[in-house]
Amino acid sequence: MDFLFAIPSFILKLISSLFYWVFSLISGILGVMLLPFKLLWGLFMGVGQTIISIVLLPILLFSNSGDISATQPVVITSDTVSNNYHLEEIYNDIIQLEKAGRNMEFLRSYENLEECGSKMRGYQDKVKILIDKTNALPIKYKMTLGSAAIRLNSCVSCSTEAKKQCEMIRLDLSDYQSMMNEE
């Protein structure tokens, strides 16, 4: 009697295997047939991007925005950048917060954790403002002052690694001073 139930399941398994094989064969054939169209589509997209670049290049090169003529060079001196971005103010703010972070060292023990947390929250608001200011700087200054500002988050925290981050800030500020002396 069990033999009668085994036959339909065997036939069902055989039919499902046959459909699986036929479907795999058809999808493989379709994939091979569509391959040239996929290659042509990729080539077409590449040509389209090239055409767009060729059309836009003269517009970008010869467009005149504002009062600056094409023969007039644009020169930004370090004094201009310093005045526009208040580099010294940012530098001094970073130094003050770094010192505050170093002075928090005794608060980083378990007994003083609550006081450390309240000081940290106060400093973190100032750090966020500094990070926003340094994000607006040209990349030349962002590399040093921006890096120092980001490290301030850890320096003024209650983390046991805070002291190391404060030391890294001093290295960033040293790099900034060297860069400014070269200009």
Report on the structure:
The protein has helices at 2-62, 78-85, 87-103, 113-135, 139-155, 162-182. It starts with a helix and ends with a helix. The protein has six helices and no strands. Helix content is 80%, strand content 0%. It has two domains: 9-48; 79-182. The protein is elongated. The chain is mostly helical and 183 residues long.
Quick structural summary:
The chain is mainly alpha-helical and 183 residues long.
Total domain units: 2
Q: Shape from CA axes?
A: elongated
List the total number of helices.
Answer: 6
Strand content: under 5%
Quaternary state reads: single chain
What is the first-to-last residue Cα distance? 97 Å
Main sheet record: none
Structural class of the secondary elements?
A: mainly alpha
What is the gyration radius calculated from CA atoms? 33 Å
Helix content estimate? over 70%
- Beta-strand segment tally: 0
Q: Which whole number gives the mean pLDDT? A: 78
Elements, N to C (H/E): HHHHHH
Which stretches are poorly predicted, pLDDT < 50 over at least 5 residues?
67-77
Keywords: Membrane, Transmembrane, Transmembrane helix
Which key phrases capture this entry?
80% helix, 183 residues, 2 domains, 0% strand, mainly alpha
Note the topology.
Elements: H1 2-62, H2 78-85, H3 87-103, H4 113-135, H5 139-155, H6 162-182
Helix pairs in contact: 3-4, 3-5, 3-6, 4-5, 5-6
Keywords: Membrane, Transmembrane, Transmembrane helix
Transmembrane segments: 12-35, 41-62
